[in-house]
Amino acid sequence: MKNNTxxxxxxxxxxxxxxxxxxxRHMARQITRHTWLYTEMINAGAVIYGDPDRFLLKNDGxxxxxxxxxxxxxxxxAKAAAKAAAYGYDEINxxxxxxxxxxxxxxxxxxxxxxxxxxxxxxxAMQEAAPDCAVTVKHRIGLDCETDYQPLADFVGTLAEKxxxxxxxxxxxxxxxxxxxxxxNRDVPPLRYDYVYRLKREFPALEIIINGGIKTNxxxxxxxxxxxxxxxxxxxYHNPMxxxxxxxxxxxxxxxxxxxxxxxxxxxxxxxxxxxxxRGTILRHMARHYLxxxxxxNGARHWRRMLSDAELLKPNDPDLILRAWEQVERANxxxxxxxxxxx
Length: 343
Ligand SMILES: Cc1cc2nc3c(=O)[nH]c(=O)nc-3n(C[C@H](O)[C@H](O)[C@H](O)COP(=O)(O)O)c2cc1C
Hints:
Blueprint: E1 11-13, H1 22-31, E2 36-43, H2 44-49, H3 52-56, E3 65-70, H4 74-86, E4 91-96, H5 101-105, H6 116-129, E5 134-140, H7 150-162, E6 167-171, H8 193-202, E7 207-211, H9 217-223, E8 229-232, H10 234-238, H11 246-251, H12 260-277, H13 283-287, H14 300-307, H15 310-313, H16 319-331
Parallel strand pairs: 1-2, 1-8, 2-3, 3-4, 4-5, 5-6, 6-7, 7-8
Helix pairs in contact: 4-6, 6-7, 12-16, 14-16
The structure holds flavin mononucleotide.
Residues 14-19, 40-41, 68, 95, 97-98, 138, 171, 186, 211-214, 232-235 line the site of flavin mononucleotide.
């Protein structure tokens, strides 16, 4: 049975390789209760043949959370999806948007946009293997120099017709399979939000989530006039406190946003527990995701410097997080719980 009590995907944090691991997701979940979180892309083969804990372990209290898989073999994806379901993921997402040469060599990622029938087979196999999870897809608006809307509509239309997938996450720019690095592929091809809006108009029954270049709450609110949800990537990583108001603004939940002091305390407790649990976790694995937290505050530079200093990190003492916080606390006026100048 699919869990129908989950919040809608009005807001989500994008899957980001090396960035949205379970430590980042833990931090994000302290800031927003309802936003959907996505893992990094995990290769289906790694899940099947590797150490499943290494790739699938997540924290309690992290849901709603989606695992993103990379692959193009329906049976492999099905096996990986079954394992993921057992770890408690709410959704399994298939990557059809990554343009990296390594991924192209494996014939998955963005090049799957040329193979809608194969993608349909993949999604159906995943859904059969993980009937309690939502199975969704993340893709681009096109490949290479294609500028027409119709191939995008055909891709979505084929999947809508041949699968039970109803959620489409659309990074609103093309993937250029040659000539651009993955990083350039996130900036250079022009954004076409109008194509994503048109998808929603032409497929009103589908849940259409827009992604790409979205940075502020005003921009999010504007997109939500046209589509069902907004996925934010880089801004949520470099400025995680952006998410502090999302429950109130976009989910109608008026609980008080987490204060900086409270958040820092929770992160310190989490780090202590993770270090005690072993599994090879060191303080740097967590602290590196905290660097953007003080974005825009006085003392943010000290915070970043202390939490990225190899010598300071070496003893794996979680109190380092508190010591770095003291620098920020001293430099700002938090008398009303929020720093002066913010809000
Ligand atoms: C460091 C990094 C890693 C990424 N890894 C993935 C990934 O594993 N899977 C995926 O679908 N997209 C990945 N992306 C793309 C993002 O999910 C998102 O589509 C893209 O960054 C555009 O959104 P933004 O402008 O809000 O960042 C990655 C982006 C970044 C910056």
